[in-house]
Amino acid sequence: MKVLRRVCGVSGPSWAARGLATIIPKVSQVDNSSGFLGNVPHRQHPGILHLKTVKLPPELVQIAHFLVTQSSMRDLEKQTKALTNYLWSRKRPLETMDLRRKALEVEQKLREEAILAHPKGSLTQLDDSKEKKLQVKVLNILRKTTYHWESLDYTEELSFVYMAARMDGVFAAVSRAFHEIQKRVPDFQPSTLLDFGSGTGTVSWAAHSIWGKTMNEYMNIDTSAPMLALAERLMKGMSENQEPCFPGVYFRQFLPVSPKVKFDLVVSAFSLNELPGQAQRVETVQTLWRKTDGFLVLIENGTKEGHQMLMEARDAVLKGKDKVIHDFREPYIFAPCPHHLPCPRLSPERPLPCNFIQTYCPLPFSWNPQQKEEKFSFLILRRGPGESKEPWPRITQPVLCRPRHVHVHLCCPDGTLQHAVVTPKKHGRDFYRCARSSQCGDCLPVLNPDSEPALGEEDSHIDKEQS
Predict the structure, then answer these.
(1) Which residues make Cβ contacts (< 8 Å) with residue 339, sequence separation at least 6?
(2) In a 10 Å sphere around its CB, with 0-12 CB exposed, 13-18 middle and 19+ buried, how is residue 199 labelled?
(3) What is the pLDDT of residue 20?
């Protein structure tokens, strides 16, 4: 509330006296006055969070292009496309309990079919030979219908292909997540960064492009020695003295052991799916949270698998309890969820991914177009008390603009998904134009009806007191 009043230039007493129109019944209201924005343009209303086309730092583009042109690797274009498709379609490894349950279901179904194939009552159980055939058939079905997760060994060659295929897309997604922190918390000036699963060091480049004036330590953690060597080569750029493009960059294969070592900004981008099981993912996320002093940023593919891994990490932080608590500040969800309730998109009937799109200029290779889009899911958690202002609903799908009305799909603070139709007649010209200027991932500056009474409700309450 305080933030909305400050941004929109609305004082306390006059706010309650203005008329309000409901955008979502029993969920939110919007200010229906002409002074809603003050001097702020509609396309820059306080809920705008999306980024325009992201461009990689020129030094990074130059060295990446140089390494590719000097490379003798064959069919690099074909390999980059194959790796991109593989990483996008990759699923989590199936847990042992789930595999056993699936095997029992298949076995029971085949057993019932075998018994029913005989005349009624002539067969109640299978003999040894048929039992063995049944088990072989179960195994064959499981092999064909079960996703076979394999750990990726990032050799020198595969690390190079990953750089050419994914470095620019990762930079775009990370930049979008960092932009949200910078836009909503301009006072946050981190000095230390921990990047788990750092890969080509893209997160350090993205952090430097935003907070380079205050950052003095970039800790890159990756288990692959060839990947770390490539990231260090990229960091040195085209400089003749082989000095890093910016100071304070470190490369390690293991996380710092001491729980007292903390970082202002901790990031894991597209790395959780590299872990062999749920227990390892949960343990890793909890370890990263213990090392977080400010923000923890998690980014994955914008698929069902990626979104579900982030919701798994969300529960691990919000519901997980350490035996020894080194930091008593409670976690709260900073973005994109406007609530701490279960994700409404993870319905058992039809689970849908919560994802966003960022446009970027890819590396200037012959097979790349001038612009590409990165579809990703992200989760940002913060230490400390919850936000002082009331959370605004998040736009979860592309805004559909039609003549004199706009369709917006919102994830609301009460934990529900709502479809709102905004019109200039009902909600006012200013808010209508704000909705038309918004995109997926932005927030709509609407208020909870419990926070401020509508004009009619206030008048009715005053009449009752006078009577």
Answers:
(1) 333, 391, 411, 412, 413, 414, 415
(2) buried
(3) 46
Helices 304-319 and 278-290: crossing angle, nearest 10°?
50
What is the 8-class DSSP label of residue 37?
Answer: S
**Domain spans in the chain, listed from the N-terminal domain onward:** 2-47+392-466, 58-88+151-383, 96-145
Alpha-carbon torsion angle 7, 9, 14, 15, nearest 10: -20
Furthest-apart CA atoms within the chain: distance in Å: 90
Query: Rounded to 10 degrees, what is the CA torsion of 141, 147, 153, 157?
Result: 100
pLDDT, tens digit, for every residue of 88-127?
Answer: 999 988 888 888 888 888 888 877 777 776 665 555 566 6
What does the chain come to in residues? 467
Note whether 420 and 408 are within 8 A (CB).
Answer: yes
For residue 267 the two structure tokens come to: 């990031």
Q: Find residue 202's DSSP bridge partners.
A: none
Calculate mean pLDDT across residues 299-324. Answer: 90
The model's pTM = 0.85
At 218-276, the pLDDT tens digits run: 999 999 999 999 999 999 988 878 888 999 999 999 998 887 889 999 999 999 999 99
| Helix (H) or strand (E) run with residue 137 in it | helix 128-145
CA 321 to chain centre: 23
221: helix, coil or strand? strand
**CB-based contact 258:264 (threshold 8 Å):** no
Pairing state between β 394-395 and 400-402: unpaired
CATH top class, domain 58-88+151-383: alpha beta
What lies within 8 Å, CB to CB, of 69 at 6+ separation is none
Tokens for 324, please give them: 């020894």
